[in-house]
Design goal:
This protein is an alpha+beta fold and 543 residues long. The protein contains nine helices and 23 strands. Strand 11 and strand 12 form a beta hairpin. It is elongated and about 205 Å long.
Length: 543
């Protein structure tokens, strides 16, 4: 019997009227089973006694008795269900931190599996059972377990927030629709939920599409980096090979030059040795003649002196050494000149490569009209500035230069690297560079590193920089376009002659402890002699 009971399902013991497990089950003459109270109330209300299931009509109200067999089966089923519930409860775990606990459990709180929006209670699997079986509770709306169910109640009317106001985009209760949201477009939460969920699905699809595009872009960038690295490795290998060959050639020619020079020196030494040998031989012969003469001068033999005198008194046969010289070998400096030219060409080549490198950090600099001296005229595109005698009526804001014919760029430098180019062709005086954001802009200004300026100054046909003290920069030709490069972290400001691909000057080891701004000073127009504007030029990369 126990085994048979365990095979029966709950549906076989539900009353067709109350949809709950039988209480005092009775059987009608037609063979259908109901709770005694349910079928009695049904027939009390109905005009005729009729089976709710098969519609069989009874002309007289049947006398109903509790079906002992079914009643026992129901009791056994309840006991079995309780045992299963008890077993299931023992297998369930207590709610962990972060999990929603069951509000009904006493003692150890089990993990909730559903929350009821009508009861405002969260239930574990066991305590949720009535909501799954009882007809009245089946209509309650269940959701995945959430905390703070009270937050789903209207604070003003203490009713469930089961509607959504589209006008105010907020959840409301039934009383809210009658009072505060009477004329608003209000829909059930479920309807708005469906719309919003559809939007979320659409948004999620769009986001996934964006993610995919960005992943493809990452792959594209990685591929570019890979190709760049391959090209860089190839370039480095070729450069190393070229420099190795250059080094080998230089060493080869150096050895040859040393050999030629040594050979010249050896020939000079050999010539000198020959002369010295001849001179020493003549000295030896002269010493011999001198000794014979001295001996003869002391002789008392008259005959012998007279006989020897002609041969000993005659001039000895010697070379005239008056015009003979040992001249050092001639070194015309051709090699040194060629090497000097080569070094100069290499320096230009390296500077050109350096300029190409810094140009990759080019930024689009524009002039800030709020900082311009009232006697400066700026172009509409913010790329040109020149000085005029007439002063414009402008507000004397703190950012504006009051006396100095200066203007700052809008682009702030607080990290990394920047580069920009300025055309100075046709100007007799100008100042370019960068300056600290906090520089004094009122009254006369003194340009120096100490005061927060890192610039090149061109006045009276000469170039200057102002480091610890003014430094004169000799220039072979007049500058026409100047490149300005800043490496904030390295504390470096460099200036380049763009047309000649040459370095003008570099401030190194600078301490930048605040923001920098591009600095421009077209200087006074000098009665039209210096009226040409400073022009911020687009960067055309050096090739």
């Amino acid at each position: 019997m126990s085994a048979a009971t365990s095979l029966l399902s709950e549906d076989q013991f539900l009353c067709p009227i109350c949809l709950d497990v039988f209480t005092d089950p009775v059987s009608t003459p037609c063979g259908h089973n109901f709770c005694k109270n349910c079928i009695s109330e049904h027939w009390n209300i109905a005009v005729q006694c009729q089976c709710p299931i098969c519609k069989k009509l009874f002309y007289t109200k049947p006398e109903l008795q509790v079906n002992i067999f079914i009643s026992e089966m129901v009791d056994r089923f309840r006991q079995s269900a309780q045992q299963r519930a008890s077993s299931s409860r023992s297998e369930q775990q207590a709610a962990k931190p972060g999990e929603v606990p069951c509000d009904v459990c006493t003692g150890t709180k089990l993990k909730a599996v559903k929350s009821c929006l009508v009861c405002l209670v969260s239930y574990c699997e066991n305590h949720l059972e009535p909501h799954l079986t009882a007809s009245g509770l089946k209509r309650h709306e269940l959701i995945n377990p959430v905390e703070n169910l009270e937050g789903r109640m209207c604070m003003k009317h203490n009713k469930a927030l089961e509607l959504f106001c589209k006008d105010d985009q907020t959840c409301v209760c039934m009383l809210c629709t009658i009072l505060d949201h009477k004329t608003h477009n209000v829909v059930p939460l479920k309807e708005e939920y469906g719309e919003k969920k559809a939007e979320l699905v659409k948004t999620e699809a769009e986001i996934q599409q964006m993610i995919q595009k960005r992943r493809l872009k990452i792959q594209e960038i990685k591929q570019s980096v890979k190709l760049s690295k391959e090209n860089a490795d190839k370039e480095i290998a070729e450069d190393v090979q070229a420099f190795t060959k250059l080094k080998e050639s230089v060493e080869k020619y150096q050895a040859r030059v040393i050999t030629v020079t040594k050979e010249k020196q050896k020939r000079t030494e050999k010539q000198a040795e020959g002369f010295i040998k001849e001179l020493e031989q003549e000295i030896s012969e002269l010493k011999k003649r001198s000794s014979e003469l001295e001996k003869l001068s002391h002789s008392e033999d008259h005959f012998n002196l007279l006989q020897s005198f002609p041969s000993l008194n005659a001039a000895p046969s010697t070379k005239d050494w008056t015009e003979i010289r040992v001249y050092p070998p001639s070194y015309d400096g051709t090699i040194k000149k060629a090497l000097a030219q080569l070094v100069e060409r290499l320096k230009k080549m390296f500077t050109k490569a350096e300029l190409m490198w810094v140009q990759q950090y080019a930024v689009d600099v524009t002039l800030d009209p709020d900082t311009a001296n009232p006697k400066l005229i700026l172009s509409d595109d913010g790329k040109q500035a020149h000085h005029v005698d007439a002063k414009k009526n402008l507000p004397d804001n703190p950012e504006r230069f009051s006396i100095g014919a200066c203007v700052l760029g809008k682009q702030i430098v607080s990290s990394g690297r920047i580069y920009f180019e300025v055309q100075v062709k046709g100007k007799s005086d100008w100042v370019l560079g960068v300056a600290r954001e906090s520089i004094n802009r009122k009254g006369r200004i003194t340009i120096s590193c100490e005061n927060g300026y890192w610039t090149v100054d061109f006045r009276n046909e000469e170039h200057f920089v102002f480091a610890d003290s003014p430094v004169h920069l000799p220039r072979k030709s007049k500058l026409e376009k100047v490149g300005v490069f800043v490496d904030y972290e390295e504390g470096l400001v460099s200036f380049y002659d763009v047309d000649a691909s040459a370095l003008i000057y570099s401030y190194t080891g600078c301490s930048f402890n605040e923001k920098l701004l591009p600095f421009f000073c077209p200087c006074l127009n000098q009665g039209g002699k210096n009226s040409t504007p400073l022009i911020i030029s687009p960067v055309h990369h050096t090739e």
